[in-house]
Amino acid sequence: MKYIPANEIEREKLLKEIGVSSFDKLIEYIPQSLRECCLNLQGSISEHELLK
Prior knowledge:
Elements: H1 8-18, H2 23-27, H3 32-35, H4 47-51
């Protein structure tokens, strides 16, 4: 199954459905220190490599 990201219209519909005006409002309860933490992620791979 391929990942298809939501477009701007879909994002606005989703936010309206849950009763928030923006993504920033949605995550504002998460402390800034947690939103800015560094993740030690490995390098990226292509979708083709992932599906092998």
